[in-house]
Design brief:
- The chain is 63% helix and 2% strand.
- With 255 residues, it is mainly α.
- It folds into two domains: 4-106; 116-254, Four Helix Bundle (Hemerythrin (Met), subunit A) (Up-down Bundle), CATH 1.20.120.
- It has a two-stranded parallel sheet with strand order 1-2.
- Helix 7 packs antiparallel against helix 8.
Length: 255
Amino acid sequence: MSPITLWEAIVIGHYIKRLQRAKRDSPLNPKHDESIYGSLELVWHFLHEAVLETTARRINGRIEEILSRLEDWEEPILGDLASPIRTLAHDLWESVEDEASQRPIFFPIPARKIEVARLLANPTEWFLRRFGTVFAQPPPGVVEDFEEAARTFAAGFSASAIMFSLRALEGILREYYRRKTGSEPGSKTWGQMVQDLREQIPVSLFQRLDSLRTLRNGAMHAGSRDPEEWGDENASRVLLTCREIIEAIAEDLEG
């Protein structure tokens, strides 16, 4: 029976409490809402990373159903979704409390290879050091995703940190696509946008963006992941790569 880190216990409790505060009039941006959508996604990943199999079997289908509804939600507030989200949070809390209580908890020794203190102090500045010279402000939702990437990375949720940093980078990529092509990316995937840009961007930038494509596609398919690609060491590499790609995008647009 594998142990749970103290950070994992604290952070999962924090996100479940967020879900318990869902109200009918809570504002909602379905793609990037830090309080609801992001919390649901992080909980979904946590259940797999912490290997809470019993809770995952009970809850995963309900989380995925609500996430799917949020994807298509056209109202600016939660409305009728608030009640099922609070019920889900209540059931999730009881299940995690029951299952996790049977697992040992330990204090992890930090083994991060990047500037964790600076990353946590100001995630947006850490990721977007040069981006502000090109755009007045980051695209919607990007800042929230970088903040979540920093929190989850520090807490030891490597797969979640990778997911949030890649999702934020995709927001930057969509804005880059608009600048380079003069058209909206619409529903284009990461891979489709990168292929469209292939002849318009530096070869090294294309290669880096393309190298992350498979990882981005696997962000919501925990069962098919290679554990080595979603572990602690690779999380460090992905976060650094995202920052380097954003700097390369800024440099290309400045030129």
